[in-house]
Design a protein that fits this description.
Elements (H helix, E strand, L loop, with lengths): L1 E7 L5 E7 L8 H5 L7 H18 L8 E5 L8 H4 L1 H10 L6 E6 L7 H13 L3 E7 L6 H6 L4 E4 L1 H4 L6 H17 L2 E4 L5 H10 L3 E2 L8 E2 L13
Length: about 230
């Protein structure tokens, strides 16, 4: 696993670290995900959860007061209560607090059964986990997913973020999402931030939390300290 920090837009404090899958020697996610098939999807999803929690616990992530954000594949979850069993066991084994875990599922993955995903979100919340919709604005369902169920967190896709400081249309869209999220009580995270200009505009628009290379690159089996973002050009 590699870990990338997510920081508060208000004061730069660390809100969470996202666990990102890597190969044994640090190979990128694409190399690993290319080997995922329908047959091994469930086992892969379970292995990633356990590795993320074990790695985060060994690195002392919870001691920092930060949360751990884990990506999961909703299409790999056949029954939420059964699939969460190994996660609960791993958290108990490592002493990692359940309330510090966020589960992200991506809008970019085809959601085959909206009711099934709604049940997953409901079940995970009942265990005390936070839930997040990743890559919002990039995939198949978008606003339709939020109309059917609301996660605790929505992560804006990097395509909405790119050049937002110079793109009027992107600013207008994100401004509207901020208003909608506040009405629904949803926390917003902007991901994929690469420049100080993007960072400054997102803070001005009222985004809650920020993630991207301008803050810190993912660290392979370590917890990177966020860089001081220079807002001046």
């Amino acid at each position: 696993m590699a870990f990338q920090p997510i920081v508060s837009a208000a004061d730069g404090s660390i809100f969470a670290y996202e666990a990102l899958v890597r190969g044994e020697n640090g190979e990128g996610a694409g190399t690993v995900l290319a080997r995922v098939t329908e047959e091994n999807r469930y086992a892969f999803d379970q292995a990633c959860r356990r590795m993320a929690i074990r790695s985060a616990a060994s690195l002392g992530l919870a001691d920092l007061g930060a949360r751990l954000s884990i990506n999961f594949m909703p299409n790999a979850v056949y029954k939420a209560e059964a699939c969460i069993r190994l996660t609960l066991e791993t958290a108990r084994e490592t002493g990692f607090p359940l309330s510090s875990i966020i589960f992200e599922f991506t809008e970019d993955e085809m959601i085959r059964d909206t009711d099934h995903v709604k049940d997953i979100v409901r079940a995970y919340k009942s265990y005390g986990f936070l839930t997040a919709l990743d890559d919002f604005g990039a995939g198949y369902a978008g606003l339709g997913l939020l109309a059917n169920f609301q996660t605790d967190i929505v992560k804006l896709d990097m395509d909405l973020i790119r050049d937002i400081d110079t793109d009027r249309a992107r600013r207008a869209i994100v401004r509207g999402i901020v208003v909608m999220a506040k009405d629904l009580g949803i926390t917003l995270i902007a991901e994929g931030i690469e420049t100080a200009g993007e960072h400054a505009v997102l803070c001005d628009l009222g985004i809650d939390h920020l993630q991207g290379y301008v803050i810190a690159r993912p660290g392979f089996m370590n917890l990177p300290v966020p860089m001081q973002v220079r807002l001046a050009a």
